[in-house]
Design brief:
6 strands; globular; alpha+beta; two-stranded antiparallel ribbon
Length: 137
Amino acid sequence: MKNIIRSFVFSYIALYFTQLYIGAITFGGDPIRSTAILVTGLALLNILIIPALSILGIKAKGLTFPAVHFVLTALLLYFVAPAIPGLTITGTYLPSLHILGFMLPSKHLDKTGSLVFSALLTSLVYGFLTWLSAKKK
């Protein structure tokens, strides 16, 4: 039960930070309902991904898991967004980013680029939160 609640909370936080930084997902009409449906989809994906990957023989650690998680998140956003009323993925503008003296330039993204960056940031934030909450052995 604790893992299910954690997955819902982490999915919401990941979606919140994605929306805060990228802003490509717009919730029109009834935003609470649209957000709840999308968070439920992300949480179910995050709950079921590790057992599904273990059935396929893919380990849940290493670089393979984040890559698969990113692809599945992108597919979920691509196929679920049209099914949720009022939810759209739009083109956006990413501001420049300064990290340790390096500058990443600003960029205008079309709908596909916005979807890819939204899925990437959602997967990274969810993975970071999962890593923070992992029990140390």
